[in-house]
Write a structure and sequence with these properties.
The chain is α/β, with parallel strands linked by helices and 295 residues long. It has two domains: 30-117, Rossmann fold; 141-274, 3-Layer(aba) Sandwich (Rossmann fold). The chain is built from ten helices and eleven strands. The protein has helices spanning 8-30, 45-61, 76-87, 107-113, 125-132, 141-152, 172-179, 200-204, 255-258, 272-291, and strands spanning 4-5, 35-41, 64-70, 94-97, 161-165, 189-193, 209-212, 230-233, 237-241, 247-250, 264-265. The radius of gyration is 19 Å and the shape is globular.
């Protein structure tokens, strides 16, 4: 029997309805409009698509959005000056610098320059540190998306054996920190696997919840998954194009084979991707309420 499909698209729709209602209420009661600024350096096609999707979602939910595009050869000081300006703009509650940045710009310096109160991506070291001690202001959007997909699909996280394959600062590390906290929607036993892990399958096969975030097409195969496990696929890999020129996308999980072994699974596309943007909207709303002193 094939696995139950956890649709990020459907869960995102549910959260969008909740957000639209709350944002409308904020406008009516406090005349408060949450504001998100996106910053894009260069013309990377994937980044262009992501930024466009974020602007479209903002418009649908009633969030003010403004887009700041800089040329690929923009110097670091120009970018830092823009961030400083947005840090001091009271109409901007959240700032998102689209990654990756061009090689001549120090990504760490840029992330450190963000006002932590406006860091709705959750990557500033202050926000990551608060996550570590169990007092987060903003959860990083992709790990947050994974957690919400599980919770809203009725998956029990507390007490589960969670195996995360991948240790990036964007997904693996923060996700592990989230899931071992003694909190609701967490309190799991977490194992992180990576390129230095010996006998990867030995770890993945004991997972109640297996999360793949390695950036390698179909790296997780059916023989690496315990029967009935919940499999969350964070990866998005372009492996070619169709005859019409459309990109062919696959995840880090061999979906067709693993769905026959798993109890539940997220697809690619249509899984974690739509939810990541939704969590960005949720963080922007939280930033606006916090800045305005609204509990």
């Amino acid at each position: 029997m094939s696995a139950r499909i956890i649709s990020g698209i459907e869960i995102a729709k549910q959260i969008h309805q909740e957000l639209k209602q709350e944002i409308a209420a904020l406008k009516e009661r406090y005349r408060l409009v949450p504001g998100l600024a996106t910053v894009l350096v260069g013309e990377d096609p994937a980044s262009q698509v992501y930024v466009g999707q974020k602007a479209k979602t903002c418009a649908a939910l009633g969030i003010h959005s403004e887009r700041h595009d800089l040329p690929a050869d923009a110097d670091e000081e120009t970018l830092l000056a823009l961030i400083d300006k947005l840090n001091h703009d009271p109409g901007v509650h959240g700032i998102l610098v689209q990654l990756p940045l061009p090689a001549h710009i120090d990504e760490r310096r840029v992330l450190y320059a963000l006002d932590p109160r406006k860091d709705v991506d959750g990557f500033h070291p202050m926000n990551l540190g608060k996550l570590m001690i169990g007092e987060p202001d903003y959860l990083p959007c992709t790990p947050y998306a994974v957690q919400q997909c599980l919770i809203r699909s009725g998956v029990e996280i507390e007490g589960a054996d969670v195996v995360v394959v991948g240790r990036s600062n964007i997904v693996g590390k923060p996700l592990a920190n989230m899931f071992f906290q003694k909190q609701k929607g967490a309190n799991a036993t977490v194992t992180i696997c990576h390129t230095g892990t010996r006998d990867l399958a030995r770890h993945t096969k004991r997972a109640d919840i297996l999360i793949a975030a390695v950036g390698k097409p179909r790296a997780i195969t059916a023989d690496m998954v315990k029967k009935g496990a919940v499999v969350i696929d964070v990866g998005v890999n372009r492996i070619g194009k169709t005859e019409s020129g459309k990109a062919i996308l696959v995840g880090d999980v061999d979906f067709e084979a693993v769905k026959e072994q798993a109890g539940a699974i997220t697809p690619v596309p249509g899984g974690i991707g739509p939810m990541t943007i939704t969590m960005l909207m949720l963080n922007t709303l939280k930033a606006a309420k916090t800045a305005s002193g609204i509990v």
